[in-house]
Amino acid sequence: MTRRLRYQVAVSLDGFIARPNGDYDWIVADPAIDFNALYKQFDIAVMGRKTYAPVAAMEGHGAMPGIQVYVFSSTLSPATYPGVSIVNDDPLTVVAELKKKGGKDIWLFGGGELFRSLLDAGLVDTVEVALMPVLLGSGIPLLPPGADAKLVLTDLKRLPTSGTVVLAYTVEGSRAAAPQIAYVKPPGKSKQKRATTGKSRQAKKRVEKPRRRSSR
């Protein structure tokens, strides 16, 4: 069974995945998102040069622990970016071959132009977006103009704290359904944990109290 190529990305309410200069400072954080659980679903990430540019400034040149990062570029030097694979070959051929190999899912990290070419080639299986409550007005679009594609909704999660809505779609025609959104923590989980911890401490005090009295 071929593994899925999943376009998993944050997007503004007006359809942009980054500012015109590539910045992601507008992305809203939410404590309900378990990033460790999200990252464990993938062992490969693919992205274009423009998407990688701000990522490269991070520690380790944007390398992701446990995930092999492929950056498609004809201008970047592989020696300059250790920890990632700079690829000058045709993305369609490379991704098609990666999908045939065993392993976890492949994270299509961006950007829109790479998404468009892979979608037109029939290689994208799912579109999963975290819809942020932000209007950018301009920027890099989720998808450049081109042929249309029909999507089938498979899961939806609303995050009241930040106002983010997470949506998962299967690209119509793909044999691989989009996964359930399992990296979003159930609402009230942390509150329940704190309440349980508090009750345990109170019970412990009640047990210890008569012990102190009997030792007098």
Q: Any overview of this molecule?
A:
The chain is an alpha/beta fold and 216 residues long. The protein folds into two domains: 5-185, Dihydrofolate Reductase, subunit A (3-Layer(aba) Sandwich); 186-216. Helix content is 26%, strand content 27%. The chain is built from five helices and ten strands. The protein has an eight-stranded mixed sheet. It has a two-stranded antiparallel ribbon with strand order 2-8. The chain is globular and about 45 Å long. Mean pLDDT is 85; it is low at 192-197 and 199-216.
Key words describing this protein structure:
disordered C terminus; 8-stranded mixed sheet; single chain; 216 residues; 5 helices; alpha/beta; Dihydrofolate Reductase, subunit A
What's the CATH H-level superfamily name of the largest domain? Dihydrofolate Reductase, subunit A
The CATH topology name of the largest domain reads Dihydrofolate Reductase, subunit A
Q: Please tell me the total number of domains.
A: 2
Secondary-structure element string: EEHEHEEHEHEEEEH
Percent in helix = 25-40%
Q: Could you state the oligomeric state of the chains shown? A: single chain
For this structure, what is the CATH class of the largest domain? Alpha Beta
Would you count the extended β strands for me?
10
